[in-house]
Amino acid sequence: MSIVILTGAGISAESGIGTFRDAGGLWEQYPIEQVATPEGFAADPDLVHRFYNARRANAAQAEPNAAHRALAKLERQHTGDVLIVTQNVDDLHERGGSQNVLHMHGALNRATCSACGHTWPAPTEMHTTDPCPKCTAPSTRPDIVWFGEIPQGMNSIESKLRTADLFVSIGTSGTVYPAAGFVQSANALGLRTLELNLETSSGAFDESRTGPATQLVPTWVEEVLSQQRNSTKR
Ligand code: BJW
Asked: pLDDT value at position 27?
């Protein structure tokens, strides 16, 4: 059985990383158009760098939780493919032990040059005048996908969905496209669809379980591994 897992801010919430749209979330504190659009970056790059420098520091202090670790266990022990497509820009999946992770909205620990496209590991703090290590243009930015930009790895995600059996969405509000449309694609392709979230985001899933990720995800992973053990005994 091949599984595609989409994760969002909710899976890292219990590690102390704020979500975007819940009460007290990041978008209540920082206007989206100022910090998460190319236009906002062009208008005030210092503000955007300060926002992502603070997010990078917050993510570096956070630790993977039981949900991240359970997905890593699934990847290690499941006999079929497991791909994590995360909208999160933190590295808690990787630090929790997962290896097959696609960051469709970019990553806080990567920098990129808008002049030449070179990408490199981000320093702890980025600044507007930092030169690109390859072309030296002072055009560096966090390697983050802002509104209006094309998410990363779309071809790989679409092709993986075409051959998967199960699509699982964890801790995402399903408000930001194209990720929000994956469940419809999965349904149309005949995959089973499951949502694990504090609250149901839409009626589009075959099954929705509600609760905190640190409880729901380890329980679900144990179910999948136990079904696998039972089917190999037969
Ligand atoms: C828990 C929990 C716990 C809490 N346990 N659960 C009109 C209609 C349709 C589309 C558009 C439109 N106008 C514009 C668009 C496109 C636009 C879009 O979708 N806008 C909508 C807002 C309408 N999308 C784009 O621009 C994207 N690009 C694009 O479409 O390009 C065109 C293209 C696509 C494909 C191929 C070719 C071309 C780019 C989107 C970039 C998003 N970037 C951001 C910020 C940058 C990253 C960062 O700084 O971190 O990414 S926005 C922000 O939202 C961030 C997140 O990754 C993303 C999703 O948020 P998420 O993860 O769902 O968080 P929340 O806070 O919304 O939800 C948290 C959930 O957790 C909740 O459900 C809680 O219940 C749950 N929860 N605690 C379990 N303990």
From this structure: 83
- 19 in contact with ligand 1, CB cutoff 6 A: yes
Residue numbers annotated as active site: 105
Q: E strand or H helix at 167, and its extent?
A: strand 166-170
Sheet holding 3-7, edge to edge: 101-103, 82-86, 3-7, 166-170, 192-197, 207-210
pTM: 0.97
State the pLDDT at residue 124. Answer: 95
Query: What's the total number of domains in the chain?
Result: 2
Q: CA separation (Å) from 70 to 150, 207, 211?
A: 30, 20, 16
Domain extent at residue 182: 1-16+62-105+151-234
Judge if 94 and 205 occupy the same domain.
yes
Of 147, 184, 205, the residue with max ligand 1 atoms within 8 A of its CB, to mutate for a pocket test, comes to 147
Question: Are residues 164 and 215 both part of a single domain?
Answer: yes
* pLDDT value of residue 234: 65
Q: What phi and psi, each to the nearest 5 degrees, are found at residue 227?
A: -60, -40
Residues 216 and 184 in one domain: yes
Same domain? 117 vs 30:
yes
Look over the chain and give the mean of its residue pLDDT values, rounded to a whole number: 96
DSSP three-state, residue 181: helix
